[in-house]
């Protein structure tokens, strides 16, 4: 039975089925291709491992993080240090003071103060052979102190090389000097005349170094650094750049269980730098908050005393009026008094007096904001509320006003920096004024409600005589003034108590500390995996792209599934010096494969008597149709069958060379009538094999092949020979072979492994399934025998498994994967 031979189906059904269509992607071939290129993956793994090792050792900059936790006390009261109390109007709760502190820690004002105070715009690092390492200020043996009145070039590395003792050589870059200099006083740029690169210079600690673009001196670190450095690289940054860099590395969170505990963290390239910054930041914040508390509480105490003095006078005057009415008018004992209504009115008016007192304090705060008189600001407690967000907006507004006054000395009113600072001030004013409007609205709403209730209660007193009502009005006026006085007195006592016990409301629970914590980044393991994985993906990607873009036939199984044409045999690649493999290497696996083709052709052509015409063709030249023709004719001749090989590829004659026959006269001469048939038939060293070569290339090969004389020529040969093998032109280039197939008993179509294009098989497949061509079979040529022909199909063709049966086996070495498989099988098969 012919491998791949399909049972015929009805024509109508076969026409509906699509043939000649190959899959875009062959997963099996792709995986085998990956396995064949295993060495690329091994190479990429080692390359990736080397690169990742170099990265982690010499290029990766470790990122460290330090944490600080602090507690915010609940007894704070000053304006700039709002407390944790719940806003009595809306019933709001939450850590408002924590929000305020968070805003302060992340504010530009606070961090700019630290930067200028600690010279954090000066950055230190050191460079080894490959890698640069960031240093903490205390890691450097010397500090660089700039002259803030002199313009400095920023982002311009200054290298200090120790020269022994207290001497250092100042080395500047070979290029990059700029006339645009930054002023650390005005935080603006100025331009000077162009200049040449300053020469290297040795200076001592304490001496000033001056160049057109720099002026600084070196100060000795009082603490001896633990590491010895061969160079110190100093970089200056602008204040704005430093603020942005620092704020972006700070994170503030609140404890999930106790929201008055804050956890502040900072990341950076140097652990000591993050530790020192956090501790200094909180220390400065404690000082500032305590100073603000003292100032605001003092202002509040003075404000409340002034109001108490005024209220006391009103209270004395009201008491005199009431006493006069009691003694003169004798109204101290009013009969049938409605004590319930009078008590209700007294309580309501006491509340009203308290709210009006708070509104008065609110007016004082508003006036201080509008007049920018922050030094006279009183506590929000005097106005009856504590609002951390409002306090933060006022603190920001205060800082912006100060900043604007500084900038007004440098910039013009309509300059871009001044417009920007004015915009920020307007935003802060909107925020603070909006909060005040909310409190005004709440207070006045409450007063309106009280007035309505007082009006209802007064209706119950309308029946009293005029003198009695006059006395009751005087008594109510006294009570309101007394309630206001008591409210102010209570707030003054609270303020004085806070001033007497003035302590910082921030207590550090765990300061930032260097305990040798490991870096938090970069994720070196993930980076290594990414580098190695990326390099391993490169050959995989190339193989995948090659597989997708590859249009050549590489898989026997796919070929047969797509074409549904029987497979006659698989021929291994020819390593012989000529095409006469069967004659010169009769015991080779290739010769045996041709014998298999010979047997299968008999099934294809039928078992009927008479001679058989076998036509061999292919898609294009170079696929091995002549090679198959020669060797198929050879095995037929060697089997005692009288055989003739016809070279009918008139456009490209080949056969004569391997048989060492003169091609002076051939089929083209016979068809044109120049010679007799006997003159073109040549004997070979196989007694039963004759060859008729093509002869000289004619001008009209198609007409000659399709001529009646050629058909008669084939019919005449059938009377003489058992088998007539026709080496015909490729059907992908000319249509000659299709005409000759009408007169053949069997047609062999040669497909070359990794050479024949898939699309070339579409026409022959369609003609076969359309019934235009019959008795067609495929020969798969030039297959890589080291893979075993069973790959992708399962027929077990090829050598390498003969174990000495074929000549090639003496030099054959099984592939590594086959040897491993056989070894495993031998282990499991042991009894």
From TrEMBL:
One of its GO terms (molecular function) is kinase activity. It catalyses: L-tyrosyl-[protein] + ATP = O-phospho-L-tyrosyl-[protein] + ADP + H(+). InterPro entries: AAA_dom, Bact_polysacc_biosynth/exp, P-loop_NTPase, Wzc-like_C. Keywords: ATP-binding, Coiled coil, Kinase, Membrane, Nucleotide-binding, Transferase, Transmembrane, Transmembrane helix, Tyrosine-protein kinase. The chain crosses the membrane at residues 38-56. Residues 612-754 form the AAA domain. It holds the Pfam family AAA_31. Residues 345-372 form a coiled coil. Its EC number is 2.7.10.2. CDD domains: BY-kinase. It is an enzyme of class 2 (transferase). Belongs to the CpsD/CapB family. This is non-specific protein-tyrosine kinase.
């Amino acid at each position: 039975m012919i491998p791949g031979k399909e049972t015929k189906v009805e024509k109508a059904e076969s026409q509906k089925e699509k043939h000649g269509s190959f899959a875009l992607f062959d997963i099996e071939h792709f995986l085998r291709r990956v396995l064949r290129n295993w060495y690329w993956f091994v190479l990429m793994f080692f390359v990736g491992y080397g690169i990742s090792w170099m990265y982690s050792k010499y290029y990766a900059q470790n990122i460290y993080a330090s944490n600080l936790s602090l507690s915010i006390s609940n007894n704070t009261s000053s304006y700039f240090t709002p407390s944790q109390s719940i806003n009595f109007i809306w019933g709001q709760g939450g850590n408002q003071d924590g929000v305020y502190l968070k805003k302060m820690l992340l504010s530009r004002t606070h961090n700019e103060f630290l930067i200028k105070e600690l010279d954090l715009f000066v950055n230190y690092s050191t460079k080894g052979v490959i890698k640069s390492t960031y240093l903490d200020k205390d890691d450097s043996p010397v500090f660089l102190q700039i002259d803030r009145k002199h313009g400095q070039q920023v982002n311009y590395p200054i290298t200090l090389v120790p020269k022994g003792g207290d001497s250092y050589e100042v080395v500047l870059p070979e290029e990059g000097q700029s006339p645009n200099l930054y002023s650390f006083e005005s935080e603006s740029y100025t331009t000077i005349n162009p200049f040449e690169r300053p020469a290297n210079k040795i200076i001592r600690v304490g001496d000033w170094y001056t160049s057109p673009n720099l002026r600084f001196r070196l100060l000795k670190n009082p603490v001896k650094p633990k590491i010895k450095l061969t160079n110190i690289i100093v970089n200056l940054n602008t204040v704005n750049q430093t603020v942005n860099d620092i704020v972006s590395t700070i994170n503030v969170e609140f404890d999930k269980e106790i929201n008055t505990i804050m956890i502040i963290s900072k990341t950076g390239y140097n652990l000591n730098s993050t530790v020192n910054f956090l501790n200094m930041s909180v220390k400065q914040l404690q000082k500032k908050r305590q100073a603000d508390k003292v100032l605001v509480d003092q202002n509040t105490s003075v404000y409340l005393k002034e109001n108490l003095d005024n209220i006391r006078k009103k209270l004395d005057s009201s008491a005199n009026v009431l006493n006069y009415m009691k003694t003169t008018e004798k109204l101290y004992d009013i009969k049938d008094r409605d004590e319930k209504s009078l008590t209700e009115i007294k309580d309501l008016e006491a509340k009203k007096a308290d709210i009006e007192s708070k509104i008065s304090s609110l007016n004082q705060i508003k006036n201080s904001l509008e007049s920018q008189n922050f030094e006279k600001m009183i506590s929000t407690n005097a106005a009856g509320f504590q609002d951390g967000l409002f306090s933060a907006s006022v603190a920001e507004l205060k800082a912006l006003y100060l900043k604007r006054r500084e900038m007004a000395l440098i910039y013009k009113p309509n300059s871009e920096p001044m417009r920007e600072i004015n915009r920020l001030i307007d935003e802060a004013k909107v925020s603070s004024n909006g909060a005040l409007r909310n409190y005004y609205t709440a207070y006045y709403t409450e007063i309106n409600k009280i007035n309505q209730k007082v009006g209802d209660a007064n209706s119950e007193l309308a029946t009293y005589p005029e003198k009695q009502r006059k006395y009751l009005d005087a008594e109510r006026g006294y009570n309101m003034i007394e309630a206001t006085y008591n409210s102010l007195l209570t707030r003054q006592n609270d303020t004085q108590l806070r001033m007497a016990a003035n302590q910082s409301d921030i207590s550090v629970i765990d300061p930032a500390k260097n305990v040798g914590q490991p870096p938090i980044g970069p994720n070196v393991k993930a980076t290594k995996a990414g580098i190695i994985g990326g390099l391993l993906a490169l050959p995989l990607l190339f193989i995948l792209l090659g597989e997708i873009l590859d249009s050549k036939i590489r898989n026997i199984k796919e070929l047969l599934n797509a074409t549904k044409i029987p497979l006659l045999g698989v021929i291994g690649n020819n390593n012989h010096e000529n095409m006469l493999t069967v004659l010169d290497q009769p015991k080779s696996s290739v010769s045996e494969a041709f014998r298999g083709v010979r047997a299968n052709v008999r099934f294809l052509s039928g078992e009927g008597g008479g001679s058989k015409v076998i036509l061999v063709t292919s898609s294009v030249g170079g696929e091995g149709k002549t090679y198959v023709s020669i060797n198929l004719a050879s095995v037929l001749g060697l089997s005692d069958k009288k055989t003739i090989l016809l070279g009918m590829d008139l456009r490209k004659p080949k056969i004569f060379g391997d048989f060492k026959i003169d091609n002076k006269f051939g089929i083209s001469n016979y068809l044109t009538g120049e010679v007799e048939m006997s003159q073109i038939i040549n004997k070979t060293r196989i007694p039963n094999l004759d060859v008729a070569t093509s002869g000289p290339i004619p001008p009209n090969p198609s007409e000659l092949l399709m001529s009646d004389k050629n058909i008669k020529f084939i019919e005449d040969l059938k009377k003489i020979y058992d088998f007539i093998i026709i080496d015909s032109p490729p059907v992908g280039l000319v249509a000659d072979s299709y005409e000759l197939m009408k007169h053949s008993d069997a047609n062999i179509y040669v497909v070359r492994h990794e050479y024949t294009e898939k699309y070339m098989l579409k026409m022959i497949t369609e003609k076969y399934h359309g019934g235009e061509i019959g008795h067609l079979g495929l020969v798969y040529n030039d297959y890589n025998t080291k893979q075993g022909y069973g790959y992708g199909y399962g027929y077990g063709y090829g050598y390498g498994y003969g174990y000495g049966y074929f000549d090639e086996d003496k030099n054959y070495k099984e592939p590594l994967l086959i040897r491993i498989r056989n070894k495993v099988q031998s282990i499991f098969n042991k009894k």
